[in-house]
Amino acid sequence: MTGKAKPKKHTAKEIAAKVDAATTNRGGGKAGFADRSGVDKGGHAKLECPLCKVTAPDVKSMQIHHDARHPKIPFDESKLNNLHAGFVGDSSKAKPGIRGSLKK
């Protein structure tokens, strides 16, 4: 029964996990919203539904959306709006899911 009053020390693994969580872009917050919307950097949202303007990352997800939301209209892949088609990348902006903090 000895040692119960001893304060626990932080392990190197725990500290490394905290540093990783603090410095890795997980895609949340305002920056994550801009990334998911696909407006500024062409992030995750590659395709846009021509009927309701909902965005999706790939054709399969858009087909699932279309079957659920627009069942009476046949799915036509050629009518989808590709948000990445006219996008020119800017290397100075932060990329989604990149390790490391911007404070360095």
From TrEMBL:
Keywords: Cytoplasm, Nucleus. InterPro entries: MBS1/2-like. Residues 1-43 are annotated as: Disordered. Residues 1-11 have a biased composition (Basic residues). It is found in: Cytoplasm; Nucleus. Its main location: cytoplasm. One of its GO terms (cellular component) is cytoplasm. PANTHER family: GEO09665P1-RELATED, ZINC FINGER PROTEIN 706. This is Protein METHYLENE BLUE SENSITIVITY 1. It comes from Sesamum angolense.
